[in-house]
Amino acid sequence: MEVICIEDQAFYALLDKAVERIKSTLDGGAKERWVDDKEAMLLLKIKSRTTLQHLRDEGKIRFSQPQKRVILYDRLSIAEYLEKHAKDTF
């Protein structure tokens, strides 16, 4: 059996890099903050653009309109909306 000795700092730095690499592999890389309507509907598990517009108009999810016909939705606000409506288990 072979034993390898390294300093604490080097060990934890190596461990952090390994965790980062595993996370990026599982997530498929970094996710964009702003998503289009199709991805927003997937995240919210809704099928109607009218429902998405309703959430937008009531200010329940953040959006940006960089061009006249382009509307992007904030992934973080969608996650916050879902978390706000989550029910705790017994």
Describe the structure.
- This protein is an alpha+beta fold.
- The protein is built from four helices and three strands, in the order αβααββα.
- A three-stranded antiparallel β-sheet has the order 1-3-2.
- β2 and β3 form a beta hairpin.
- The chain is elongated, with a radius of gyration of 20 Å.
- The model has no long low-confidence stretch (mean pLDDT 89).
Briefly characterize the structure.
The chain has a domain of 51 residues. The chain is of the alpha+beta class.
* Morphology: elongated
The chain-level structural class is: alpha+beta
Can you summarize the main beta sheet?
3 strands, antiparallel
- Give the total of beta strands: 3
Which key features would you list for this structure?
90 residues, three-stranded antiparallel beta sheet, 4 helices, alpha+beta, elongated
Please outline the helices and strands.
Layout: H1 8-27, E1 34-35, H2 37-44, H3 49-57, E2 63-67, E3 70-74, H4 75-84
Antiparallel strand pairs: 1-3, 2-3
